[in-house]
Amino acid sequence: MSSKKHATLRYTSLRASIFLGCLLVFLALGHFGVIPVAGSTGVVFLVLLAGLVSAPISYVVLAKHRDAMSEQIAGRVETMRSRTSARIAAQNAEEDAADEAARAASARQ
User: Fold this and answer.
1) Each residue of 50-103: pLDDT tens digit?
2) How far apart are CA 100 and CA 108, in angstroms?
3) 50 and 89 in contact (C-beta within 8 Å)?
4) Which residues of 60-81 are buried (b: 16+ CB within 10 A; e: fewer)?
5) Count of C-beta atoms within a 10 Å radius of residue 4
6) Helix pair 7-31, 63-108: axis angle to 10 deg
7) pLDDT tens by residue, 2-26
8) What letter would DSSP give residue 8?
9) Cα–Cα nearest to 55, from 70, 68, 66
10) How far apart are CA 88 and CA 39, in angstroms?
């Protein structure tokens, strides 16, 4: 249970770490002239390149973590859905009781 408790936080932090690792590699390659970088536009290019490269890496490497995060979110949604339906059922029962009381009062008159 504890391994799935923080699944979203774990996945997000690992995803950000992969992106930052790729960014550092590309910034180093740009600094040493392997990748041509010209001013701030070049840095934006390196950030976009890091995002483009880190996405498929994360897709493959973090599959297990993504599945755990999905289970965690689905469980929370199901809990919220069941609470909402129970609350709606209680409100409907209350409205039905009030309606029946009003009908009984009008029938007596």
Assistant:
1) 999 999 999 999 999 999 998 988 888 888 888 887 788 778 878 877 788 888
2) 12
3) no
4) eebeebbebbeebeeeeeeeee
5) 13
6) 140
7) 466 788 999 999 999 999 999 999 9
8) H
9) 66
10) 58
Q: Are the CB atoms for 7 and 69 separated by under 8 Å?
A: yes
Residue type, 36: P
CA–CA separation, 97 vs 102, rounded Å? Answer: 9
- C-alpha span between 49 and 37 (Å, rounded): 12
- The amino acid that residue 39 corresponds to is G
Angle between helical axes of 39-61 and 63-108 (0-180°, round to 10): 80
* DSSP code for 109: -
> Are 6 and 70 a contacting pair, CB within 8 Å?
no
List the structure tokens of 23: 């960014």
